[in-house]
Amino acid sequence: MKVSGAMRKYWFHIALLILVTVPIVLLLCLDYYNMEGYNYAFNSETGAFESWHNTFFNDNFAFELTWKGRLFLLVFLWIFIVESAMDWKKFADEKPRNRYLMTASLILAAIPLVYVVAVNFLGLDLTVLSIGRNVFGIGVAGSANESLEFLSYQWPISFEYIVFAVFFTMAVFLAYKLKGLKALSISLVLLGGFGLAYLFDTIFPFGVFKPLAAFAVPTAATAAALFELLGYSVTLIYPIHSAGSALPSLTVHVGRESATVAIAWACAGVQSLLLFTLIILVFFKKSDISAFRKLAYFIIGAFATFFVNVIRIYSIVMIMITEGQAAGMAYHDIYGELYAVIWILAYILVIGFIQRFTLIERTKSAFRRVYSRLGTAANKLISRNKPVDDTPPP
Fold first, then answer.
1. What is the pLDDT of residues 104-113, one digit of tens each?
2. Backbone phi and psi for residue 393, each to the nearest 5 degrees, phi listed first
3. Beta-bridge partner residues of 22
């Protein structure tokens, strides 16, 4: 009876969790067994799509890739479940009473599942590729191989994130309004943030969007300074022109070995800074922290996120030097983006720990006690060493 009562109370959010989980798990299985769609390539001579064995989806397991890959779908799902567990009772109390709202919310949450099935089995993949080519002009610039990669692999991944983020967010908002968005904000912002970063880099590849490309220069200069500080021979060149963009180029020499990397805005970690800003702001919305501390936490975290990206560049270059170009690019695609995400989540935990146990107040109190004791000890020492005046009064 207790179990059935709990199911009646929580069935709606359980159903929502299932609808969020199933398309990601299905996509994981399709990706692992190479059963995906998008087996079309655009022929520039005929101006049409032709059947083609998509080597990108069939030769890679995209769930192990972070740039541009599907690993963050699993990270999103994990955080979404954790956030749901933290506010489990609240979701039961806030669930919609109107059956039409419930139904609409569940339909919206089910659309990503329908999308995955339609793309891989019902021919929607060709429509998605046509939208990327004809609406956004993806694959127009660059060499034939680069155009193929952006249109046939990176565009589907980017659009996939956007579909998941939009409909999951709409489903949560329709069900729980702003309270639901607040409770599940970190997972939804993570999903949408990476979707926008992927999409923007797919539409404007190789750093051609100049306002964001400007961020690559200070990151490259800081990375060069780090290498010089550690005793390496470094050459920094700006600009080098590639596919219509101007990028900084960093070359590091270690003995007879060297590695050269061109740093675009995505490689410089601009998306990490944007993601940090979004996640930390929604975290501040959920927490009771003074405005001064929020500003201090934000500034410290932003500088740290910048240097985490510098360390990521350092790691990739050193792997290229020691293990080769292919190993460095594999590290870039698989582990690179984890640097910033792990740091951001760890930083939020640190802030929560500091606030929960009032560590700043305790530290101040400890310093005051130490200062007070030092002052008392100093006064005693001064009074003990002070010469005694034995001169009799007149």
1. 999 999 999 9
2. -65, 150
3. none
